[in-house]
Hints:
Blueprint: E1 22-33, E2 36-47, E3 51-55, H1 62-69, E4 77-82, E5 85-86, H2 92-98, E6 102-105, H3 117-128, H4 134-147, H5 163-174, E7 181-185, H6 193-210, E8 213-218, H7 221-227, E9 230-235, E10 238-243, H8 245-249, H9 254-262, H10 264-267
Parallel strand pairs: 3-8, 3-9, 6-7, 7-8
Antiparallel strand pairs: 1-2, 1-4, 4-5, 9-10
Helix pairs in contact: 3-4, 3-5, 4-5, 5-6
Amino acid sequence: MRLARRQEPDTFEFHKPTPGEQLIHFEHISKAFGPKQVYDDVELDVRAGETLVVMGGSGAGKSVLLKCLIGLLRPDSGRIVFQGRDLTRFSEEQFIRVRRHVAMVFQGAALFDSLTVGENVAYPLREHFPDMAEDEIRRRVAEKLALVNLPDTERLMPSDLSGGMKKRVGLARAIATDAEVILWDEPTTGLDPVTTQSINELINSMKTKLGVTSIVVTHDMVSAFTVGDRLAMLANRRILQVGTREVMLHSTVPEVRAFLDARRVELVPGGAS
């Protein structure tokens, strides 16, 4: 039987961190879905201002990590500490406040099909800032769409968009509230090489233009090595190694070696297909 969660104060204030300092800490995280144990004892730090790539095979639980961070799933044990606050103790109402600062770009963009592009991007503004004036909402929507290179697309419907454009609208929606942390769930899955490269460039531009912290989960090694400042290997229900691109390329951890060797052709210039 689980112990009742202690209630945290019903506030969450984000304080601008110093680049490089620990911003998020996953501490001894365990998670299971019925008999399937996804995590045994996951430990991982995320530093302010970096792009951290979590790589691993299909079914390793990469996306589960992101969903636990924003409260869509709950770990069975362990802590997720964000700016000194233990998010595993937060109520759904408290997570609403957290999601102003931590936004997720879902694998399929997860746009509302019945809403226009502009209405999709405006959605989190209306949710988090119900008193915001319509003129300000329109200004912010136009600003965010221009930032992701989709100006003057507010009246389009999701059905009018390509896969890459949908990802860009998903990002515009994610940054509409000026979120400081962006979570990317398999951002290049199903995209052609040209569109994949444009998404990689977009991830990098968010760091240079906005100074955001990003966590990218992927099994696409071209993307991982293009955008990642550090990479973390998730396998066997744990984080096996974390390091820079150079460290990971020369890893002696057997599971990391096997994962990279199986995708070696992707990492050779011109080798991606």
